[in-house]
Specification:
about 180 residues; mainly alpha; Arc Repressor Mutant, subunit A; rod-shaped
Length: about 180
């Protein structure tokens, strides 16, 4: 029985050693797998950090784009407003030039009429013209504005209200303009 027991003990010992070798190999495989999982988790965390940084940069760029678009919209609005204002001032300038041309024509007519009158009447007209010119020199814009508003169809009271002048003064300006046009 001894030999069978020894034999069995030897077989058990071999089986035990084989079992230990298999367990050691499994342990090494588990350790390797654990290291690979650890590296994968670290790489995933690094990728996550990179993605978060990219997202923050994208948000900053998006905010900058929105700001740029808003700024461009404001600039466009200002340019449009300035363009409208320029067009309005251009129309006013054209109206003023037309008014001046009419004045020149009126003055030419007055000069030809003056040559037909006697010297005494000429001196009276010159004196009146000087008084009118002195008055005009003080308020050329008012006369132009009154004439322009009247030509646009505003009443005397509306013109007086818009120019902060009395209705009598506005009527006088319009009457003088009509008298000049008749001459």
């Amino acid at each position: 029985m001894n030999s069978i027991t020894n034999f069995l003990l030897g077989v058990l010992l071999v089986l035990l050693v084989l079992n230990l070798v298999v367990l050691y190999q499994q342990r090494n495989h588990i350790e390797n797998a654990r290291e690979q999982i650890k590296k994968t988790v670290e790489e995933s965390l690094a990728v996550k950090t990179d993605l978060e940084n990219l997202m923050a940069t994208a948000i900053q760029l998006s905010d900058q784009i929105v700001t740029d678009i808003q700024t461009q919209a404001q600039v466009s609005k200002i340019i449009s407003s300035l363009d409208d204002r320029l067009n309005s001032e251009e129309r006013q300038s054209e109206a003023f030039i037309e008014y001046c041309n009419n004045k020149i024509s009126t003055t030419d007519s007055e000069v030809s009429i003056l040559s037909k009158f006697n010297i005494e009447q000429t001196f009276e007209n010159i004196d009146i013209s000087r008084q009118e010119e002195a008055y005009k020199a003080n308020q050329p814009n008012l006369h132009y504005e009154v004439a322009r508003l009247y030509e646009q169809g505003f009443s005397v009271s509306e013109i007086a209200r818009r120019t902060n002048r009395g209705q009598g003064e506005i009527s006088l300006i319009l009457n003088l303009k009509q008298k000049r046009n008749v001459m």
